[in-house]
Amino acid sequence: MSFVESLFTVWVTFLGLCVGSFLNVVIGRLPLGESIVYPGSRCPQCKNPIAWYDNIPVVSWLVLRGQCRHCQTPISPRYILVEMLVGVLYLLAFQKFGWTLALPGPLIFIGFLVALSFIDAEHWVLPFEITLPGIVVGLLLSWVGGLHGFYESLFGALLGFLGLRAVEYFGWLGFRKEAMGAGDKFLFALIGAFLGWRALLGVMLLASIQGSVFGIGKILVLRRKNEPEKPKEPPEEKPPAYTMTWEFLQPGLSIGRRLLLLPYSLFLQPIPDAPLDEQGEEVEWKPDLTNIPFGPWLALGALEVLLWAEVLAAKLPLAGMEFLFGT
Ligand SMILES: [Zn+2]
């Protein structure tokens, strides 16, 4: 590696640490509805502002040994974890894409994925404030020369959204409950906008396999710890009277009317994301210990395809299935 290359490598990694530091603010504040620019960083306990020298990525957390300088309140290890993670991902992206015009897209994409993963893992939401701008940014980047052409990207966003919306709809018809988080389809659309539609199948495959392995492992560990068994669910009650049908499928409509209703049904008509009570109101849903959010697994699959699509397509027992990863 030449001297200049090493310099760029260090610089991009350092950029990743700083972006990670910013993402920590987003992850900590956005789900609580707080502004991410004002006020400046302060200790949530003693409210003392955090000086610049206590706000240096990774270093400050280590120097302070994960505690507030003033009141010794522990600072979550999430801070150093996110900073190092983004630093490493930026380094890997730089190694793959080099100092080219193809680099900014992946760097921005990584930022969106990390912020959304950590928020989803902690709060079980994928905020629209991040997913919607993310989709737009992915499309714009493809317009000015991202990883893929614009139509590849536009079709990716549409396919990602509609694919998971169909899963949601048929899951609802089949089980009368949420098959997947309502926000996941916006994340999948964002992934489609950045990676193009060809990559979506591979992303879903990787996300499902790894998410299932983790989910099963978690259940086994909980069993071993002798977690109190969940109380047996009461015998299946009669399914709620309310059923949902996509408007354009209602019986007795003319073809013209169906076509008119199609866009509304596909994109806007609400699909209940929780079981309904007798009044047709959604029952509040709380994750139990055996549930895991799917967003971080989608993000992991997307990162793997972003960084290693060619390796995956060549090395997996799936060799010859390059189409899965869009390579
Ligand atoms: Zn403090």
Q: Tally the helices: what do you get?
A: 10
Q: Which segments are poorly predicted (pLDDT under 50) over 5 or more consecutive residues? A: none
Shape: globular
Amount of beta strand? under 5%
What features would you highlight for this structure?
mainly alpha, 10 helices, 2 domains, globular, binds zinc ion, single chain, about 325 residues
Question: How would you sum up this structure, described in words?
Answer:
The protein has two domains: 1-99, no CATH class; 131-327, no CATH class. Helix content is 57%, strand content 0%. It contains ten helices and no strands. The protein has helices at residues 3-29, 59-63, 78-97, 104-123, 128-144, 150-175, 184-195, 200-224, 255-268, 295-315. α4 (104-123) packs antiparallel against α5 (128-144) and α7 packs parallel to α10. The model has no long low-confidence stretch (mean pLDDT 86). It binds zinc ion. Zinc ion binds at residues 43, 45-46, 48, 68, 70-71, 73.
Provide a compact summary of the structure:
The protein is mainly alpha-helical and 327 residues long.
Fold blueprint:
Layout: H1 3-29, H2 59-63, H3 78-97, H4 104-123, H5 128-144, H6 150-175, H7 184-195, H8 200-224, H9 255-268, H10 295-315
Bound molecules: zinc ion.
The site of zinc ion (ZN) has 8 residues, from loops.
